[in-house]
Amino acid sequence: MSVAEAWLDPTAASALMARGELSAVELVEHMLARIERLNPALNAYVAVLAEEARAQARELDAERASGHARGPLHGTTFAVKDIIDVAGARTTGGSRTLLHNRPPRDATCVARLRAAGAIVLGKLHTHELAGGVTSENGLFGRAPNPWDTAFIPGGSSGGSAIATAAGLVHSALGTDTGGSVRIPAAFCGVPGLKPTYGRVSRSGVLARSWTMDHVGCFGRRVRDAALIYDAIAGHDPTDPYSSRRKATPVTALLDDRMEGLRAGVITGAFFDSQLDPEIGAAFEEAVRKLESLGVRMQAVSFELAEAAHAAGSVITLAEAASTQDEALRSSPQDFGADLRAQYRLAEFISARQYLRALRVRPLVQRELGALLREVDVLLTPTTSAMPTRSDGETTAESIMLFTRNTRPFSLPGLPAMSVPAGFSKACLPIGLQIIGRPFEEATVLRVAHAYERATPWHTATPPLAATSG
Amino acid sequence: MDTTVITTVAGEMLDLALTDDEAAALKAPLEGLARMVRTMEAVPLPFPGDPFVSPRMADEWLENTPE
């Protein structure tokens, strides 16, 4: 790995810096140059914090020169979805309602990454208020799929996936309510992890759905996502739903063996009936590859999947409208048409229906808990459909289709990850979803890492971003 | 649901003034919502006297191995 390729790999960049062959300042300048060159076409960044990043890099270089390095992220770069606070920078959520929102403090996840020595490069495009899958908003327009700009990148954390895939940052933070990390990860061809509910603090992160929201992370490699996860996981008293359970580092466990691990391949009409044949073929190939690595496969069924998807959708709609209640009453015209339509729809959900959806959640947890006593992980394709062309609009139907395989696992709060698993004939990425037991992110990441190492998909880079330097 | 009914329910029950076009645009999404609700309601719930699991799986989930 040369200095000119340090944008590809934070672990390699970290090693170069440790040997004195690269400084954090040089790395940041390199990244800023890539952003300047490629972002106009990709629209991944909505704000680049160049001066702040340079200042942070100088401090980190000085620290290293004095003999202190903070760990594997020291001097590497990250960026965050524009619903996550960075002190002094605007958090707009891509919404006119938050045009002047400039929080004074970092979100807890940002503060933890800074403390680990990572440098924040900027804020990344989001679908308005994390409320859709096409990554469009009225403030910053649309962000395209880096593999083919005529297609959507997925969302709502589209900018996070695009920037990571295109090498405009080493790693990125996003949020996942019904699939908003995993869907863009799949569509943009990068690993994306949604940890267990309560594992990563949401303090300083705009809410979409209080009982469904998770902060997650993207990397160019599974290892990159694991490093980020290790830095941000753990209890935070400022998030009332933060788990007190001790967070165990996962990166050191990535290379543990696969032999004896049991995986459940979820089958049944809900997952199969609308499955794109190309995705189905890639998924079957991924299952065979994992089997060849020593994973024991068995078919399992998830009877409540459709009800879980429905309940998760009802909860998300109702809670999302509640988060915006004041602005909806005072200035509904400030929301984009798709968000306004969602919120209007939510007005018609009765209290009884919302509570019914909440009461379905423990039943889903019980069923998946039983399945996950038989197997260590569950497998599905991340999405059942390929990305659509970006000239359409987000409809309730499109959200339902793209979240079909992800939302049923968001409802119970299980850790889940998308890892690149091939390409369609049109050269658009396909994702494999790995779901684990609560708080067993290590197992999910280990399976993803083993699969990544056994396949070539992670070595591909979107054509327009492939030039080194 | 007929658009007149949508407009009436919105105005009378939800304090939401809708134009005819806005009410018409809600027709298909409301049908989708009704399908989701029917799907949810097909799941038998535990006896209502059973302890209610809090709206977020909450304490048991979040603190199942306290530090």
Write the layout of secondary structure elements.
The complex is a heterodimer of chains A (469) and B (67).
Chain A: H1 10-18, H2 24-42, E1 45-48, H3 50-65, E2 77-81, H4 108-115, E3 119-124, E4 136-137, E5 141-142, H5 158-165, E6 171-176, H6 182-188, E7 192-194, E8 214-219, H7 222-232, E9 262-267, H8 269-272, H9 277-292, E10 296-301, H10 305-323, H11 325-330, H12 337-346, H13 351-374, E11 377-381, H14 396-402, H15 407-410, E12 416-423, E13 429-436, H16 441-454
Parallel strand pairs in A: 2-3, 2-6, 9-10, 9-11
Antiparallel strand pairs in A: 1-3, 4-5, 6-8, 7-8, 7-12, 11-13, 12-13
Helix pairs in contact in A: 2-3, 5-6, 10-12, 10-13
Chain B: H1 3-13, H2 20-41, H3 58-62
Helix pairs in contact in B: 1-2
Mean pLDDT of chain A, to the nearest integer, reads 94
Spatial extent as radius of gyration of chain B: 19 Å
Give the end-to-end Cα distance of chain A, rounded to a whole number of Å.
Answer: 12 Å
Largest sheet of chain A: 11 strands, mixed
The total of helices of chain A stands at 16
If you average the pLDDT of chain B, what whole number results?
A: 79
Largest sheet of chain B: none
Helix content of chain B: 55-70%
Largest interface: A-B, 43 and 36 residues
Molecular shape of chain B: elongated
Content-based structural category of chain B = mainly alpha
SS element count, helices of chain B: 3
Q: Please mark out the parts of chain B with pLDDT under 50 across 5 or more consecutive residues, or reply none.
A: none
Strand adjacency order, main sheet of chain A: 1-3-2-6-8-7-12-13-11-9-10
